[in-house]
Design brief:
Elements: E1 4-7, H1 17-32, E2 36-41, H2 51-64, E3 81-82, H3 87-99, E4 103-106, H4 110-116, H5 120-128, H6 136-142, H7 155-163, E5 169-172, E6 179-184, E7 188-193, E8 202-204, H8 212-222, E9 227-231, H9 238-248, E10 254-258, E11 261-262, H10 278-284, H11 288-296, H12 311-317, E12 328-329, H13 332-345, H14 348-361, H15 371-384, H16 394-402, H17 410-413, H18 420-437, H19 442-456, H20 460-472, H21 480-487, H22 489-506
Parallel strand pairs: 1-2, 2-3, 9-10, 11-12
Antiparallel strand pairs: 4-5, 5-8, 6-7
Helix pairs in contact: 1-12, 8-9, 11-13, 14-15, 15-16, 15-21, 18-19, 18-20, 18-22, 19-20, 20-22
């Protein structure tokens, strides 16, 4: 059987870095083995699942540029699979377990559970054991559970009560003794005492909705999933799932629980560390290739001495045995470095296209730039390609090209060792040079400015600083002469004149 893996998110929130890494590792493993990558929406939690989160999932895949293998978006005949459309299948398999005496009908509504439980600890258990809860998977990991009251009911009596219309749930019969063993491809052999597994968890709720555990196991089996790669936080669910596979008589998929992603403080990555939702990284101006490259290397190695990998490279080189057991630490500084590297790999045409939406969001150009705006963006691209850390840096760096800056305050234009009168001389001389020789040949212009600075008895930087402030409105800008060339000397001169007027009034 060929490799089949799945990414099975619950659409109860935005896609975040941990989820993207899980999806990416599954995708890369499938590609490395010439297998299939499946997408499944585990939306059994109907109170928290929202259409906006489903759309965010699709948008995330579209932006990152890798897709599942079965589904209308890629021309396939199936999927993405949606659990809420498969409830009849889950009911059928829950009933099969009852028929095989591996599960039983339970008639203990919450009121009855409250009456049967006397100890404080048991009362706490009852609080999380609501048989109609949409969060039954939380119960499974809580350490609390059911007292197995209905397990001893005669099957014929139980069926009579069902036929009479009495509300019920279906619970799995967890073995009362022994232990459950399984082998994790990354962590090795794991053994769990059956006494520590949630006692007889609910599989099918009274409204006919499956719990997470039933739907998960049935789907993985019917979809012929061969390997389950998921976060280590799901390890406590694994013994229960193994017991369900045993009850059905099915061969379970191979498990690989991925290490957690932590922040620099050693705690699980969260909003307090910075951006975690993929949308935040996109809006911040990260390139998808940089994010994919960095996330793929969170806890996994590829080739020594190399940092930059295309998605195709990663697909070819990925191996489960290269995943680290230890948690991965998310380093925003390292990701910033990756982003800068990928920005510099863009062609000027690609960079212009990538910057345009951010320039438009800042109100500097139209969403569909005019020919004049498009030409100016193209001229601007080489000015910032070596300087951008994020695409969101582009509007501030290039604002002077699209909008006239405010005239700087006098103190902002004065070099440290020059007064207003000396600054006026420098700026006046600079203006005359621009009129005389222009800025087309940047090397010639710089040499001319350097010679004039020597004549004036000042440093080149002191001469250029007020010119930069006058033209761009900031002390930090792209290369000055290239910037003036892109703006045009005819547009730069009025800005210089306004600055000179302010300086002269102060002098």
């Amino acid at each position: 059987m060929s490799v089949r893996v799945r990414y099975a998110p619950s659409p109860t929130g935005l896609q975040h870095i941990g989820g993207v890494r899980t999806a990416l590792f599954n995708y890369l493993f499938a590609r490395s083995m010439n297998g299939s990558f499946i997408l499944r929406l585990e939306d059994t939690d109907r109170t928290r699942s929202k259409d906006e989160y489903v759309q965010n999932l699709y948008d995330t895949f579209k932006w990152l540029g890798f897709y599942w293998d079965e589904g209308p978006d890629v021309g396939g005949p199936k999927g993405p699979y949606i659990q809420s459309e498969r409830f009849a299948l889950y009911r059928e398999y829950a009933q099969k377990l009852v028929d095989m005496d591996k599960a039983y009908y339970c008639f203990c509504g919450q009121a009855k559970l409250d009456q049967k439980i006397a100890t404080p600890a048991a009362a706490n258990a009852a609080a999380v054991a609501d048989v109609d809860s949409q969060e039954d998977n939380a119960q499974a990991e809580s350490g609390y559970g059911y007292n197995r009251h209905c397990r001893s009911i005669d099957p014929a009596e139980a069926q009579r009560r069902v036929d009479a219309g009495e509300p019920y749930v279906i619970r799995l019969k967890i073995p009362l003794e022994g232990s459950t063993k399984f082998t994790d491809l990354l962590l090795g052999d794991i053994e769990w005492k059956n006494a520590d597994v949630n006692p007889d968890p609910v599989l099918l709720k009274s409204d006919g909705f499956p719990t997470y555990h039933l739907a998960n196991v049935v789907d993985d089996h019917t979809m012929e999933i061969t390997h389950v790669m998921r976060a280590q936080e799901w390890i406590p669910s694994a013994p229960l799932h193994m017991l369900m596979y045993q009850a059905f008589g099915w061969t379970p998929p191979k498990l690989c629980h991925l290490p957690m992603v932590l922040g620099q403080d050693g705690q699980k990555l969260s909003k307090r560390h910075g951006a975690t939702a993929v949308d935040e990284f996109r809006k911040k101006g990260y390139l998808k290739d940089a994010l994919i490259n960095y996330v793929a290397m969170l806890g996994c190695s590829y080739e020594d001495g190399r940092d930059l990998f295309s998605l195709e490279d990663l697909s070819r080189l990925f191996k489960i045995e290269h995943i680290n057991k230890a948690p991965a630490v998310f380093d925003y500084v390292k990701l910033e470095w990756f982003n800068g590297q990928y920005i510099r790999q863009l062609t000027l045409e690609q960079l212009a296209g990538a910057m345009t939406p951010y320039l438009a969001d800042a109100g500097l150009v139209q969403a569909s730039p005019t020919p004049i705006e498009a030409a100016l963006i193209a001229q601007a691209a080489p000015l910032v390609r070596e300087r951008l850390k994020y695409l969101t840096d582009a509007p501030e760096a290039l604002r002077f090209l699209f909008a006239e800056p405010a005239v700087p305050a006098v103190e902002e234009m004065l070099p440290k060792k020059l007064d207003a009168a000396a600054t006026v001389r420098c700026l006046t001389t600079a203006r005359a040079l621009l009129v005389e020789i222009g800025v087309a040949d940047h090397d010639t212009v710089e040499a001319a400015f350097r010679a004039k600075a020597e004549e004036l008895g000042c440093k080149l930087g002191d001469m250029l600083m007020p010119l930069r402030m006058a033209v761009t409105g900031t002390k930090v800008s792209p290369p000055l002469f290239e910037s003036i060339h892109a703006l045009g000397v005819e547009k730069a001169l009025p800005r210089i004149d306004k600055a000179l007027a302010v300086l002269q009034a102060a002098g």
